Amino acid sequence: MRFTKDSLRIDAGQVAEELGRVIRRQIHKDIRKSGAVVGISGGIDSSVCAALCAKTLGPDRVIGIMMPDTDSSPESEQLARELAAAFDFETIKEDIGGGLDGLGCYRRRDEAIRQVFPEFGEGYKSKITIPSNILDKDTFNFFQLTVQDPDGRVETKRLPLKAYLQVVAASNLKQRLRMTTLYYHAEKRNYAVVGTGNKDEHMQGFFVKYGDGGADLKPIAHLFKVQVFQLAEYLGVPQSIVRRTPTTDTYSADVTQEEFFFGLDFYTMDMLWYAMENKVPPADAAAVLGLTEEQVKRGYANITRKIVATEYLRLHPLEAV
Amino acid sequence: MAATDIDTVRQQIREFVFETFLFGDESEAFANDDSFMEKGIIDSTGVLELTAFLEERYGITVDDEEMVPANLDSVDNLAAYIGRKQQ
What we know:
heterodimer, A: four-stranded parallel sheet, 10% strand, B: mainly alpha, Non-ribosomal Peptide Synthetase Peptidyl Carrier Protein, Chain A, globular
């Protein structure tokens, strides 16, 4: 197999057509549902999924659910509405902030943050990131907490274990409440919940078990992020969405998916991963990507570690027999 | 650090890893020079747990820059790292 800079190029028209057939078969035939409910965030993945569903099922069988919370960027709703207008499907807005408040999401998260930054409070923002430059040095993936005070001053500290676990557990309530909301709207219509995770997220474990990982079908879970972008262009997803930097839209401070989890830009990560899957020698991959052999090996190792460490997220519930 | 001390530290680390990450499963054997990452013994959450153990048990501070496999990724690497930090 010859590895080139275009190895992840797809025939977007053909892929879209095939995915359309699969979605239609899975929803109507395999699980006998009448339509699709998609959580739309104004991001590229949910936009592609909603567009695929609208094109294959017809827009009158698709509902896009917008689920902002207190920390959400207003841009997310604006872009989601642009998408719905472009593909002519109905939207419903469910503000989950009150529900999350009731579950203690923000209180529990902030309590954990104050274990590290006791001064954290009104007017402060926070985000979690992992070390960058993962190709340039051998490092473990550990999480750092960054807070920004009301005057804009920023400070970063490593998250101790207890605080880290509590921040994540509290924040994961968001994705799980969104899943709950999607299933409400799906079940009242006899529709299917369409998951929007791509391969990077699905296989490296960048999702919440039974949160955004909870769905009836996942049409793009096998596609690299760079391929999702190609599909988006083909399908006519608004450029405002295509150009938007993928974010987590989970923490009060802006944090990209690269900063929070992947540690690499999507093109480099996807190409490294594809090369690794196809057993491209590190030296060959390095030549194509303009990296050193050592950087490629680190990239391969980092991706492998994440896949192995998050295997449990992709498991069905374990049964005794 | 004297050889005996190093052996003691190695044993303490082995016990910690065995109980904390392998839950006392004696079938999960590992050698002192086995990479925790390669064997899937420790992940990103486990690294935080390991760091907390080192700081509490040996009274050292693990700086972010020191959280690298050369220091933390095997029993032998850990014992050597602790020895350097305690000098």
